[in-house]
Amino acid sequence: MDSNVVAACVSVVRSNHQIIRRKARLRRLMILCSQDYTPIYATPKIRVPLMERYLDPNQALRPDYMLSRTSLEALMDLLRREKTHGWGQEVEVLMAIYWLAHGLSYRVVSRAFDMPSSTVCDIVHRVCDAILTLLESVIRFPLPAECAEVGRGFQHLAGSPAFSRCVGAIDGCHIRIKAPLPGTASEYLNRKQFHSILLQAICDSTGKFLDVFVGYPGSVHDTTVLKNSPVFVGAVYPHPGYFIVGDGGYPCTSAPITLLTPYREPSRGPVEARFNIHHAKARVIIKKAFSMMKTRWKGIFFKALELSTTFAPKVVAVCAVLHNLAVTNGDDLDPAEGDPLPPPDPQPPELDDEEGGCILRDGLAAQVSAARQCSPCLQDHDYN
Q: Which of 130, 114, 34 lies closest to 82, judged by CA?
């Protein structure tokens, strides 16, 4: 039998098994809903409207959980594990996602799910830790063999074949937090005069995160965060022969990573101006990725996180993981309309290898202009 046919059959069997398992879990939950229980700690109280809507396959889940049913089921499958206590996994995950989706207090969530608020707190922390175990498998760099496909995506975004070697866009994002204790409050006060922690992320041309690095105080410059991030220290990404793009808040370098930034404004001639236009089209995807994540989890990101400075980075990383799962499952969410894109940070501190990055940028700018100026009749001609 042809190997492709065998592979297709195996895929169908696996898909059927997953459907059977999901139906079995739903049947068990429905049985629990139909029975009366004494309200003790180890018994899930799931006869509540939120759970009833989850059990009804015809009900849309995004209004309650900001994720589609497909995305939620994908998350449940990834978190599948042996139960260690009385609460069902579905109940725990839905409770934590509901808390993320609306940014509510534990007391309000406890009323929605008819559970003690202390239990809700424990479950939220436990589910966040469980989701973080998925980070390396859900948020990862493409393999060298996959870079050509990523480059084609950025070539399309930039509108120039010169960006076919671009495999990522990097930027930083301030996440509001409540004012920390007086001893450290000044460290978290950023240049926009609110307290925050910094999220540095790299994404591909679809808006999926390839890397996240979160937790530095808001007063730290983007370049300092970059220099201390694993991707820079370990020269992890991009792979040799490729580059990533960032705004003017970053240095233009070729080592230890190749990061190309736009020319300073005002530009010196049409070549630099043309490059900046295409460069902006390529890097705007990271702004859109941040905006999509913030719009989905607006209860978390559109107000100051009332969490400790140790738990807040975990919550941000969890939202990044869920963002990737949603994008992977086609659970698209348009960024908030009118959400202003923040200006780049002030001129970054100089790094050792900016000259090498500027040379690469000049070569790329020349390619952009050459491709634009080439006559269509020359492009169509067959020289073989």
A: 130
Which secondary structure element, helix H or strand E, spans residue 172, and what is its range?
A: strand 166-176
Q: pLDDT of 105-136, one tens digit each?
A: 899 999 888 888 999 999 999 999 999 999 99
Q: Which tokens go with 171?
A: 């930027």
Instruction: Give one DSSP letter per residue of 216-284, joined into a string.
Output: EETTS-HHHHHHHSHHHHTT-SSPTT-EEE--TTS--B-SSS-EE-PPPSSPSSHHHHHHHHHHHHHHH
pLDDT at 308: 85
| Planar angle of CA 316, 321, 323, nearest 5 degrees | 90
Cα dihedral 25/26/31/36 (nearest 10): 100
User: How does 340-350 read in b/e, with b if 16+ C-beta sit within 10 Å?
Assistant: eeeebbeebee
Q: Which of 35-39, 78-82, 233-237, 253-257 has the lowest mean pLDDT?
A: 35-39
Beta-carbon count within 10 A of 245 CB: 32
> Exposed, middle or buried: residue 38 (CB in 10 Å: 0-12, 13-18, 19+)?
exposed
Local structure of 39: helix, strand or coil: coil
Tell me the C-alpha to C-alpha distance, in Å, between residue 86 and each of 31, 80, 89, 97, 98: 15, 15, 9, 19, 20
In tens, the pLDDT along 308-335 reads 888 999 999 999 999 999 999 999 877 6
The pTM for the full model equals: 0.81
Q: How crowded is residue 265: how many other Cβ atoms within 10 Å of its Cβ?
A: 10
- Do 66 and 297 meet the contact criterion of CB atoms below 8 Å apart? yes
Residue in the block written with tokens 């559970």: 115
Closest listed residue to residue 254, CA positions, set 157, 364, 333, 344 = 364
137-159 burial string, b = 16+ CB within 10 Å, else e?
ebbebbeeeebeebbebbbebbe
Residue whose token pair is 């409050």: 185
Structure tokens, 337 = 């309309």
pLDDT in tens, 231-275: 999 999 999 999 999 999 999 999 999 999 999 988 888 999 999
